[in-house]
Protein backbone atom coordinates (compact mmCIF):
# COMPACT_ATOMS: atom_id res chain seq x y z
CA UNK A 1 0.00 0.00 0.00
CA UNK A 2 3.06 2.24 0.11
CA UNK A 3 3.40 5.03 -2.41
CA UNK A 4 5.98 7.58 -3.43
CA UNK A 5 3.43 10.26 -4.29
CA UNK A 6 4.49 13.68 -2.99
CA UNK A 7 2.29 14.69 -0.08
CA UNK A 8 4.19 17.86 0.81
CA UNK A 9 2.46 20.28 -1.53
CA UNK A 10 -0.58 20.66 -3.74
CA UNK A 11 -0.02 20.05 -7.47
CA UNK A 12 -1.75 23.32 -8.43
CA UNK A 13 -2.60 26.64 -6.73
CA UNK A 14 -5.54 26.19 -4.36
CA UNK A 15 -8.51 28.53 -4.83
CA UNK A 16 -11.10 29.02 -2.08
CA UNK A 17 -14.52 27.99 -3.37
CA UNK A 18 -16.09 30.56 -1.08
CA UNK A 19 -14.10 33.26 -2.88
CA UNK A 20 -15.41 32.00 -6.21
CA UNK A 21 -18.97 32.13 -4.94
CA UNK A 22 -18.49 35.60 -3.46
CA UNK A 23 -17.08 36.88 -6.76
CA UNK A 24 -20.51 36.58 -8.35
CA UNK A 25 -19.50 33.89 -10.83
CA UNK A 26 -22.46 32.79 -12.97
CA UNK A 27 -20.88 29.53 -14.15
CA UNK A 28 -18.96 26.75 -12.46
CA UNK A 29 -15.30 26.72 -13.60
CA UNK A 30 -14.45 23.66 -15.68
CA UNK A 31 -12.29 21.97 -13.06
CA UNK A 32 -15.38 21.62 -10.81
CA UNK A 33 -17.65 20.14 -13.50
CA UNK A 34 -18.24 16.42 -12.99
CA UNK A 35 -18.56 13.91 -15.84
CA UNK A 36 -22.23 13.43 -16.79
CA UNK A 37 -22.43 10.04 -15.04
CA UNK A 38 -21.32 11.59 -11.75
CA UNK A 39 -23.54 14.66 -11.73
CA UNK A 40 -26.16 14.89 -8.98
CA UNK A 41 -29.18 13.68 -10.91
CA UNK A 42 -31.33 11.56 -8.61
CA UNK A 43 -31.52 7.95 -9.74
CA UNK A 44 -34.87 6.18 -9.77
CA UNK A 45 -36.63 8.88 -7.78
CA UNK A 46 -33.76 9.34 -5.36
CA UNK A 47 -35.15 7.05 -2.68
CA UNK A 48 -38.06 9.36 -1.96
CA UNK A 49 -40.01 8.18 1.04
CA UNK A 50 -37.03 6.17 2.34
CA UNK A 51 -35.13 7.34 5.40
CA UNK A 52 -32.11 6.10 7.31
CA UNK A 53 -32.92 4.53 10.72
CA UNK A 54 -33.28 6.63 13.87
CA UNK A 55 -31.87 5.43 17.21
CA UNK A 56 -33.17 6.92 20.48
CA UNK A 57 -30.53 6.51 23.18
CA UNK A 58 -33.10 7.32 25.85
CA UNK A 59 -34.93 4.05 25.10
CA UNK A 60 -32.56 1.99 27.23
CA UNK A 61 -29.05 0.72 26.70
CA UNK A 62 -29.95 -2.74 25.42
CA UNK A 63 -32.62 -1.47 23.02
CA UNK A 64 -30.31 1.24 21.69
CA UNK A 65 -27.48 -1.27 21.19
CA UNK A 66 -29.76 -3.60 19.23
CA UNK A 67 -31.07 -0.73 17.09
CA UNK A 68 -27.52 0.51 16.36
CA UNK A 69 -26.34 -2.96 15.37
CA UNK A 70 -29.32 -3.51 13.08
CA UNK A 71 -28.91 -0.08 11.47
CA UNK A 72 -25.23 -0.73 10.75
CA UNK A 73 -25.92 -4.16 9.28
CA UNK A 74 -28.69 -2.87 7.02
CA UNK A 75 -27.68 0.71 6.24
CA UNK A 76 -24.29 1.65 7.68
CA UNK A 77 -25.95 4.96 8.61
CA UNK A 78 -28.38 6.13 11.28
CA UNK A 79 -29.47 9.24 13.14
CA UNK A 80 -29.11 9.31 16.91
CA UNK A 81 -31.37 11.39 19.16
CA UNK A 82 -31.30 12.00 22.91
CA UNK A 83 -27.55 11.47 22.75
CA UNK A 84 -26.67 13.59 25.77
CA UNK A 85 -24.55 16.24 24.04
CA UNK A 86 -25.81 19.63 25.33
CA UNK A 87 -27.77 21.59 22.72
CA UNK A 88 -26.10 24.82 23.89
CA UNK A 89 -22.66 23.40 23.11
CA UNK A 90 -23.79 22.19 19.69
CA UNK A 91 -25.03 25.67 18.82
CA UNK A 92 -21.89 27.29 20.22
CA UNK A 93 -19.54 25.21 18.06
CA UNK A 94 -21.70 25.78 14.99
CA UNK A 95 -21.73 29.54 15.66
CA UNK A 96 -17.97 29.69 16.22
CA UNK A 97 -17.13 27.99 12.93
CA UNK A 98 -19.62 30.06 10.98
CA UNK A 99 -17.77 33.03 12.42
CA UNK A 100 -14.46 31.67 11.18
CA UNK A 101 -15.69 31.17 7.63
CA UNK A 102 -17.03 34.74 7.59
CA UNK A 103 -13.52 36.12 8.21
CA UNK A 104 -11.73 37.79 5.28
CA UNK A 105 -9.98 35.37 2.94
CA UNK A 106 -6.55 36.62 3.99
CA UNK A 107 -7.28 35.70 7.59
CA UNK A 108 -8.33 32.18 6.62
CA UNK A 109 -5.41 31.73 4.23
CA UNK A 110 -3.06 32.30 7.15
CA UNK A 111 -3.97 28.71 8.06
CA UNK A 112 -3.74 27.27 4.52
CA UNK A 113 -3.07 23.55 4.68
CA UNK A 114 -0.89 21.07 2.82
CA UNK A 115 -1.57 17.43 1.92
CA UNK A 116 1.08 16.28 4.38
CA UNK A 117 -1.37 16.42 7.32
CA UNK A 118 -4.40 18.32 5.91
CA UNK A 119 -4.48 20.37 9.13
CA UNK A 120 -5.80 23.87 8.54
CA UNK A 121 -7.90 25.64 5.93
CA UNK A 122 -8.27 23.95 2.55
CA UNK A 123 -10.32 23.50 -0.59
CA UNK A 124 -9.20 20.23 -2.12
CA UNK A 125 -8.67 16.56 -1.27
CA UNK A 126 -6.11 14.45 -3.10
CA UNK A 127 -2.93 15.44 -4.92
CA UNK A 128 -3.56 14.18 -8.45
CA UNK A 129 -2.96 16.99 -10.92
CA UNK A 130 -5.95 18.05 -13.05
CA UNK A 131 -8.36 15.90 -11.02
CA UNK A 132 -11.94 17.27 -10.91
CA UNK A 133 -12.50 19.30 -7.75
CA UNK A 134 -15.41 19.51 -5.32
CA UNK A 135 -17.41 22.67 -4.57
CA UNK A 136 -16.44 23.19 -0.95
CA UNK A 137 -13.96 24.59 1.55
CA UNK A 138 -13.06 22.97 4.86
CA UNK A 139 -11.02 23.26 8.03
CA UNK A 140 -9.35 20.13 9.41
CA UNK A 141 -8.04 19.68 12.96
CA UNK A 142 -6.73 16.79 15.01
CA UNK A 143 -8.22 16.68 18.50
CA UNK A 144 -6.48 13.65 20.00
CA UNK A 145 -3.57 14.00 19.75
CA UNK A 146 -4.27 17.68 19.25
CA UNK A 147 -2.98 19.70 16.31
CA UNK A 148 -0.13 22.07 17.21
CA UNK A 149 -1.16 25.54 18.36
CA UNK A 150 -0.33 27.19 15.02
CA UNK A 151 -3.15 25.28 13.33
CA UNK A 152 -5.84 26.58 15.70
CA UNK A 153 -7.55 29.77 14.47
CA UNK A 154 -7.13 32.74 16.78
CA UNK A 155 -10.58 34.04 15.82
CA UNK A 156 -13.33 33.81 16.85
CA UNK A 157 -12.01 34.03 20.41
CA UNK A 158 -14.13 31.17 21.72
CA UNK A 159 -13.49 28.78 18.83
CA UNK A 160 -10.79 26.59 20.38
CA UNK A 161 -12.47 26.22 23.76
CA UNK A 162 -15.87 25.24 22.38
CA UNK A 163 -14.30 22.94 19.77
CA UNK A 164 -12.28 21.05 22.39
CA UNK A 165 -15.31 20.74 24.69
CA UNK A 166 -17.43 19.54 21.77
CA UNK A 167 -14.73 17.03 20.79
CA UNK A 168 -14.72 15.62 24.31
CA UNK A 169 -18.49 15.14 24.27
CA UNK A 170 -18.42 13.42 20.88
CA UNK A 171 -15.58 11.18 21.95
CA UNK A 172 -17.74 9.94 24.83
CA UNK A 173 -20.65 9.43 22.43
CA UNK A 174 -18.45 7.42 20.04
CA UNK A 175 -17.21 5.21 22.87
CA UNK A 176 -20.83 4.35 23.68
CA UNK A 177 -21.57 3.69 20.00
CA UNK A 178 -18.50 1.45 19.69
CA UNK A 179 -19.66 -0.51 22.70
CA UNK A 180 -23.02 -1.12 21.03
CA UNK A 181 -21.34 -2.15 17.78
CA UNK A 182 -19.09 -4.59 19.66
CA UNK A 183 -22.06 -6.12 21.48
CA UNK A 184 -23.90 -6.46 18.18
CA UNK A 185 -21.05 -8.67 16.94
CA UNK A 186 -21.36 -10.91 20.00
CA UNK A 187 -18.14 -9.48 21.47
CA UNK A 188 -17.28 -7.71 24.71
CA UNK A 189 -18.33 -4.04 24.70
CA UNK A 190 -14.71 -2.87 24.85
CA UNK A 191 -13.58 -5.02 21.92
CA UNK A 192 -13.62 -2.43 19.12
CA UNK A 193 -12.11 0.25 21.35
CA UNK A 194 -9.20 -2.06 22.14
CA UNK A 195 -8.89 -3.03 18.47
CA UNK A 196 -8.45 0.69 17.77
CA UNK A 197 -5.49 0.79 20.19
CA UNK A 198 -7.25 1.44 23.49
CA UNK A 199 -8.98 4.49 24.94
CA UNK A 200 -5.80 6.55 25.30
CA UNK A 201 -4.51 5.91 21.78
CA UNK A 202 -7.69 6.34 19.75
CA UNK A 203 -7.38 9.19 17.26
CA UNK A 204 -10.07 11.86 16.99
CA UNK A 205 -10.25 14.66 14.45
CA UNK A 206 -12.74 17.05 12.92
CA UNK A 207 -13.46 18.53 9.53
CA UNK A 208 -15.70 21.58 9.28
CA UNK A 209 -17.20 21.79 5.79
CA UNK A 210 -18.48 24.92 4.10
CA UNK A 211 -20.42 24.40 0.87
CA UNK A 212 -20.89 27.86 -0.69
CA UNK A 213 -23.76 28.83 -2.97
CA UNK A 214 -23.23 27.38 -6.43
CA UNK A 215 -24.40 28.95 -9.72
CA UNK A 216 -24.83 25.52 -11.39
CA UNK A 217 -25.42 22.90 -8.69
CA UNK A 218 -26.52 20.35 -11.28
CA UNK A 219 -22.96 20.17 -12.65
CA UNK A 220 -20.91 19.59 -9.53
CA UNK A 221 -20.83 18.14 -6.01
CA UNK A 222 -19.89 19.50 -2.63
CA UNK A 223 -18.16 16.23 -1.85
CA UNK A 224 -17.73 13.34 -4.28
CA UNK A 225 -18.97 9.81 -3.46
CA UNK A 226 -16.81 8.07 -0.88
CA UNK A 227 -16.85 5.90 2.18
CA UNK A 228 -15.02 7.24 5.23
CA UNK A 229 -11.61 5.64 5.80
CA UNK A 230 -11.65 5.59 9.60
CA UNK A 231 -13.77 4.06 12.35
CA UNK A 232 -16.96 5.97 13.16
CA UNK A 233 -18.11 9.35 11.84
CA UNK A 234 -20.55 11.63 13.67
CA UNK A 235 -21.93 14.43 11.53
CA UNK A 236 -23.55 17.63 12.74
CA UNK A 237 -25.53 18.56 9.64
CA UNK A 238 -26.53 22.06 8.63
CA UNK A 239 -29.51 23.20 10.69
CA UNK A 240 -31.58 24.57 7.80
CA UNK A 241 -30.56 22.91 4.52
CA UNK A 242 -30.18 19.28 3.36
CA UNK A 243 -27.29 18.08 1.24
CA UNK A 244 -26.07 14.65 2.37
CA UNK A 245 -27.08 11.65 0.26
CA UNK A 246 -26.46 7.95 0.99
CA UNK A 247 -26.12 5.31 -1.71
CA UNK A 248 -28.50 2.39 -1.21
CA UNK A 249 -29.37 -0.28 -3.75
CA UNK A 250 -28.22 1.90 -6.64
CA UNK A 251 -30.14 4.99 -5.54
CA UNK A 252 -29.02 8.18 -3.82
CA UNK A 253 -31.21 8.60 -0.74
CA UNK A 254 -31.41 12.15 0.64
CA UNK A 255 -30.86 12.33 4.40
CA UNK A 256 -33.35 14.59 6.19
CA UNK A 257 -31.65 15.60 9.44
CA UNK A 258 -33.83 15.52 12.55
CA UNK A 259 -33.55 18.61 14.76
CA UNK A 260 -31.08 17.93 17.55
CA UNK A 261 -29.82 14.67 16.03
CA UNK A 262 -26.40 13.55 14.87
CA UNK A 263 -25.93 11.48 11.71
CA UNK A 264 -23.65 8.49 12.36
CA UNK A 265 -21.97 6.15 9.92
CA UNK A 266 -19.54 3.26 10.24
CA UNK A 267 -16.37 3.63 8.20
CA UNK A 268 -13.95 1.29 6.45
CA UNK A 269 -12.00 0.13 9.52
CA UNK A 270 -15.20 -1.15 11.15
CA UNK A 271 -16.03 -3.01 7.93
CA UNK A 272 -12.62 -4.70 8.02
CA UNK A 273 -12.61 -5.59 11.73
CA UNK A 274 -16.19 -6.92 11.55
CA UNK A 275 -15.23 -8.96 8.46
CA UNK A 276 -17.94 -7.10 6.54
CA UNK A 277 -20.73 -7.80 9.02
CA UNK A 278 -21.01 -4.03 9.22
CA UNK A 279 -20.38 -2.23 5.94
CA UNK A 280 -19.25 1.31 5.27
CA UNK A 281 -21.50 3.04 2.76
CA UNK A 282 -20.86 5.50 -0.05
CA UNK A 283 -22.23 8.96 0.48
CA UNK A 284 -21.92 12.33 -1.23
CA UNK A 285 -22.92 15.96 -0.77
CA UNK A 286 -24.91 18.07 -3.21
CA UNK A 287 -24.80 21.87 -3.28
CA UNK A 288 -27.39 24.62 -3.51
CA UNK A 289 -27.91 27.67 -5.67
CA UNK A 290 -29.57 29.81 -3.01
CA UNK A 291 -27.73 29.20 0.27
CA UNK A 292 -24.43 27.99 1.68
CA UNK A 293 -24.29 25.00 4.04
CA UNK A 294 -22.04 24.26 7.01
CA UNK A 295 -21.55 20.82 8.54
CA UNK A 296 -19.12 19.45 11.12
CA UNK A 297 -17.80 15.90 10.80
CA UNK A 298 -16.16 14.26 13.83
CA UNK A 299 -14.02 11.17 13.20
CA UNK A 300 -13.21 8.49 15.78
CA UNK A 301 -10.34 6.43 14.34
CA UNK A 302 -7.85 3.71 15.20
CA UNK A 303 -4.40 4.73 16.29
CA UNK A 304 -2.32 5.12 13.14
CA UNK A 305 0.21 2.39 13.97
CA UNK A 306 -2.18 -0.34 15.14
CA UNK A 307 -2.56 -3.40 12.94
CA UNK A 308 -6.15 -3.61 11.66
CA UNK A 309 -7.63 -6.83 10.30
CA UNK A 310 -10.70 -9.04 10.69
CA UNK A 311 -11.33 -10.01 14.32
CA UNK A 312 -10.28 -13.63 14.81
CA UNK A 313 -13.52 -14.21 16.72
CA UNK A 314 -15.41 -13.48 13.50
CA UNK A 315 -13.33 -15.74 11.25
CA UNK A 316 -14.04 -19.44 10.75
CA UNK A 317 -13.91 -22.16 8.12
CA UNK A 318 -17.39 -21.07 7.06
CA UNK A 319 -16.52 -17.37 7.18
CA UNK A 320 -12.95 -16.81 6.02
CA UNK A 321 -11.07 -13.56 6.58
CA UNK A 322 -11.97 -11.13 3.80
CA UNK A 323 -9.11 -8.65 4.30
CA UNK A 324 -5.38 -8.61 5.06
CA UNK A 325 -3.97 -6.75 8.06
CA UNK A 326 -2.63 -3.18 7.67
CA UNK A 327 -2.18 -0.05 9.75
CA UNK A 328 -4.54 2.90 9.57
CA UNK A 329 -1.61 5.15 8.58
CA UNK A 330 -1.02 2.91 5.55
CA UNK A 331 -4.69 2.88 4.70
CA UNK A 332 -5.43 6.58 4.86
CA UNK A 333 -2.47 7.53 2.69
CA UNK A 334 -4.54 6.33 -0.27
CA UNK A 335 -7.26 8.87 0.51
CA UNK A 336 -4.75 11.67 0.97
CA UNK A 337 -3.31 10.90 -2.45
CA UNK A 338 -6.47 10.14 -4.43
CA UNK A 339 -9.20 12.08 -2.66
CA UNK A 340 -12.74 10.65 -2.43
CA UNK A 341 -13.07 7.59 -4.70
CA UNK A 342 -16.21 5.70 -3.73
CA UNK A 343 -15.34 2.44 -1.94
CA UNK A 344 -12.40 1.65 -4.20
CA UNK A 345 -9.89 1.50 -1.35
CA UNK A 346 -11.58 -1.01 0.94
CA UNK A 347 -12.89 -3.13 -1.94
CA UNK A 348 -9.47 -3.34 -3.59
CA UNK A 349 -8.04 -4.93 -0.44
CA UNK A 350 -10.56 -7.76 -0.28
CA UNK A 351 -9.22 -11.26 -0.86
CA UNK A 352 -10.59 -12.82 -4.02
CA UNK A 353 -11.18 -16.48 -4.70
Plain-language structure description:
With 353 residues, the chain is of the alpha+beta class. It has 9 helices and 14 strands. The strands form 3 sheets. It has an 8-stranded mixed sheet with strand order 1-2-10-7-12-5-4-3. The protein has a 4-stranded antiparallel sheet with strand order 6-11-8-9, with no helix packed on it. A two-stranded antiparallel sheet has the order 13-14. α2 crosses α5. About 1% of the residues have low confidence.
Provide a short characterization of the protein structure:
This protein is an alpha+beta fold and 353 residues long. It contains nine helices and 14 strands.
Straight-line N-to-C gap: 20 Å
How many β-strand runs? 14
Helix content: 25-40%
Residue share in β-strands? 15-25%
Shape: globular
Sequence of strands across the biggest β-sheet? 1-2-10-7-12-5-4-3
Structural class: alpha+beta
User: Quick one: biggest sheet?
Assistant: 8 strands, mixed
Number of helices: 9
List the helices and strands and how they pair.
Blueprint: H1 17-22, E1 54-56, H2 61-74, E2 77-81, H3 87-101, H4 105-109, E3 120-122, E4 137-144, H5 159-184, H6 191-195, E5 203-211, E6 223-226, E7 232-236, E8 244-248, E9 251-254, E10 262-266, H7 268-273, E11 283-285, E12 293-301, E13 307-308, E14 326-327, H8 328-338, H9 344-349
Helix pairs in contact: 2-5, 3-5
Amino acid sequence: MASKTDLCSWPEPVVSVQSLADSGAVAVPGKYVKPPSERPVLIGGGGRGVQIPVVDQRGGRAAAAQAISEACREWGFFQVVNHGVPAELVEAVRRAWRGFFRLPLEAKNAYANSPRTYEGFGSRLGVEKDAPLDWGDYYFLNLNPASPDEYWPALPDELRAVTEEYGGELRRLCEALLGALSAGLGLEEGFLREAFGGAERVGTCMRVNLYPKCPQPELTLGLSPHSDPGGVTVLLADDHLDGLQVRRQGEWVPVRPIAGAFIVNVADQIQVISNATYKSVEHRVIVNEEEERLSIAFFYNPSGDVSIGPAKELVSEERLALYPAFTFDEYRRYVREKGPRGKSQVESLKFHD
